[in-house]
Amino acid sequence: INNSQFDEEPKKQVLHEARWNGIQNENMFRDLAKDLIATMNIENFNRYKIQILEAF
Fold first, then answer.
1. How far apart are CA 51 and CA 45, in angstroms?
2. Using CA atoms, how far apart are residues 48 and 27, in angstroms rounded to an integer?
3. Residue 9 falls inside a structural domain
4. Which of 4, 15, 20, 36 could form a disulfide with 45 if both were Cys (CB 3.0 to 4.6 A apart)?
């Protein structure tokens, strides 16, 4: 088994799903903004934002 390929395939799948979900669910971004406004929990918001940015 090619180790580099073995490592890459799960990553590709995760990225594909993240991109698909991001494109299909624009409400996700609105929900994050609402969460920030409602809770003013900047730490949580930034954590979610980083996860989204890493996914893309």
1. 10
2. 14
3. no
4. 36
| Residue 30, domain extent | 18-55
Query: With contact defined as beta carbons under 8 Å apart, do 35 and 45 qualify?
Result: yes
Maximum Cα–Cα distance across the chain: 49
In a domain, 3, yes or no: no
Residue 24: exposed, middle, or buried by beta-carbon count in 10 A (0-12, 13-18, 19+)? exposed
Number of domains composing the chain: 1
Q: Can you tell me the distance from the alpha carbon of 28 to that of 6, in angstroms, rounded to the nearest whole number? A: 31
**Tokens 């949580």 — which residue?**
44
